Amino acid sequence: MNYTLITGASAGIGEVFAKELARAGKNLILVARRKDKLEALAQELKAQFGVEVESLAVDLTSTESSSIIVKQLESSNWTIDGLINNAGFGDRGAFVDLPLDRQLQMIQLNVTTLVELTHRLLPKMLNQQSPYIINVASTAAFQAGPNMAIYYATKAFVLSFSEALHEELSGKGIAVSALCPGATLSEFATEANMTDTKLFKAGAMTAEAVVKKSLRQKDRAIVITGWKNILSVWSGKVSPRFITRKIAGWLQA
Ligand SMILES: NC(=O)c1ccc[n+]([C@@H]2O[C@H](COP(=O)([O-])OP(=O)(O)OC[C@H]3O[C@@H](n4cnc5c(N)ncnc54)[C@H](OP(=O)(O)O)[C@@H]3O)[C@@H](O)[C@H]2O)c1
After folding, report:
1. Residues enclosing ligand 1, CB less than 6 A?
2. What pLDDT band is residue 253 in, cutting at 50, 70 and 90?
3. Using one digit for the tens of pLDDT, what is the confidence trace for 27-77?
4. How far is the CA of 77 from the centre of ligand 1 (A)?
5. Which residue has its alpha carbon closest to ligand 1 atom 2?
6. What is the mean pLDDT of residues 19-23?
7. CA of 111 to the centre of ligand 1 (A)
8. pLDDT tens-digit map of 137-149
9. What residues contact residue 36 under an 8 Å CB cut-off, 6+ apart?
């Protein structure tokens, strides 16, 4: 049986991806740490939409996590035709003040596990009908982010990696997209200590709007959600880097 695997499906953008894809009749594998939330969501989606939904409670900051997931897929004969690398977190503060181990975990989750899952799942995905990968980056990917240095750098990686894969794989029948939301309502801002920043006070999009646009445009290399975010990315393209990084730092001072 074919499944879409969604990381970070217990909350926020990942949870909404799960709901939208179940509504479209897709079978799902939900991955995150909070088992109770995953199981409750799985029950809800099975009952409401009649799809198959499996949940895997895995800490994706563990270096073993991608091999644990792949072993489970193989032993259960679950085939993946959609991969949504969505799990991620940020943390606001000066690089030197934030604990090093938390910042290294951020790199492991936002970058390394995303790369490992993609590398391990991609070969078999290429044999499926209309397979796709959505990697959740951010508008943070487009400039340096003082006060969130590592988070912005991880998202720049995700954007660059996904764009390159999109090109490498074009003509091979698989869609690869980097989703770049701006401020979005979810647990992210609280987790990242960002609720009082100018960025979030200026208004955030709903996760529903972000996910609907991503799924509509999953054939595109880069999907930026919201006109304000599109304008800010494009104005950043024609501004000197010293200005864009100063603005990013000011928005989350
Ligand atoms: N919200 C925004 O403003 C915004 C803007 C741009 C980009 N993004 C990106 O969007 C993605 C989703 O974020 P969100 O806004 O939906 O945040 P969220 O509401 O905090 O959700 C994060 C998800 O990731 C999971 N997760 C976190 N650490 C994990 C770990 N160690 N192992 C496994 N799963 C883990 C969480 O589940 P558990 O806690 O159950 O593990 C949760 O399901 C992230 O990559 C984020 O960087 C968010």
Report:
1. 8-14, 32-34, 37, 59-61, 86-90, 109, 136, 138, 181, 183-184, 186-188, 191
2. confident
3. 999 999 999 999 999 999 999 999 999 999 999 999 999 999 999 999 999
4. 27
5. 184
6. 98
7. 13
8. 999 999 999 999 9
9. none
- Ligand 1 atom closest to residue 137's alpha carbon, by position in its atom list: 7
The tally of CA atoms less than 13 A away on the side-chain side of residue 43 is: 5
Taken in order of first residue, the domains within the chain and their CATH numbers are: 2-251 (3.40.50.720)
Q: How far, in Å, from the CA of 93 to the mean position of ligand 1?
A: 18
Residue 152: active-site member = no
Question: What one-letter code names the amino acid at 105?
Answer: Q
- Ligand 1 pocket check: which of 41, 101, 186, 197 to mutate, most ligand atoms within 8 Å of Cβ? 186
